[in-house]
């Protein structure tokens, strides 16, 4: 009698409901979270009593000066660091480690240079029991979603910065997370690519209904994308205030409601030079045209 054939793969999981009927999950709670590091025998307090919550499908940005603990907070939410005081919940369940329901995107794309885009995106399936056929289908769908069709077999060095970051987003999305945690995801991109990627992130968020928590030091980016902005201050990292952004999408950067919120946030970080007299006299040279400059420089 021949041995029975044992399949190591589980039967295919039923496809999730379409986007429109997607169950709204992806709520986060951060409650009285304190975190410190031991540095050469000294205790360095980094987060001090941080509390806020993120509703399912909400886009929350975290802004603050360098070193105020933004990445530390995101790492805790990701479950990459479980050594903290307080409570962190994802849909009511304590966060005790990484979870494929929380996707992660960092500033540097962290793609493996010796793997193609397709192989890099497939890495999310490592240690899962998703069948090969379904893996291929989902990888192709995510590559398509981020607009990298035709580059499936390209290596990271053959991609631009924006394309690499799109591949990193596809890798995070392929496990169908309900929360996407982004740590300065566009920080390494040039200004124009960054603007385009901001639009892409907004579309992705609106189409998929995924909860997004994005660390950025770009206030303009935060106002463009977020429903709410958590403003942090340093030493130790604390929440200074939480700013609502009640502006419909797509947002216009030049409009007064956008500018008012952006300027209000700038004021949190910059000492406004209130004491200075406004400049009323425009220097004559500002009014010179090209011909006048040429004449004066004896060109
Ligand atoms: N693994 C670590 N060990 C010791 N100190 C750390 C560690 N990670 C971060 N820090 C310190 O914690 C503070 C906050 O860092 P971080 O969360 O990276 O800030 P941000 O992302 O806001 O720039 C900094 O003072 C940093 O030096
Ligand atoms: Mg950081």
The helix/strand order is: EEEHEEEHHHEHEHEEHH
Please identify the structural class as seen in this structure.
Answer: alpha/beta
Helix content percent band: 25-40%
Uncertain parts: 1-22
Residue fraction in strands: 15-25%
Heteromolecules bound: adenosine-5'-diphosphate, magnesium ion
Which term fits the overall shape?
globular
**Tally of strands:** 10
CATH architecture of one domain: 3-Layer(aba) Sandwich
| CATH topology term of one domain | Rossmann fold
In round numbers, the mean pLDDT is 87
Highest-level CATH class of one domain: Alpha Beta
CATH homologous superfamily identity of one domain: P-loop containing nucleotide triphosphate hydrolases
Separation, N- and C-terminal Cα atoms: 99 Å
Features:
29% helix, 299 residues, binds adenosine-5'-diphosphate, binds magnesium ion, globular, alpha/beta, 6-stranded mixed beta sheet, 4-stranded antiparallel beta sheet, Rossmann fold
Your description of this structure?
The protein has 299 residues and is of the alpha/beta class. It has a domain of 200 residues: P-loop containing nucleotide triphosphate hydrolases (Rossmann fold). The strands form two sheets. The protein has a six-stranded mixed beta sheet with strand order 6-7-8-3-9-10, with helices on both faces. It has a four-stranded antiparallel beta sheet with strand order 2-1-4-5, covered by helices on one side. It is globular and about 75 Å long. The N terminus is likely disordered. Bound molecules: adenosine-5'-diphosphate (ADP) and magnesium ion. Adenosine-5'-diphosphate (ADP) binds next to strand 1, strand 2 and helix 1.
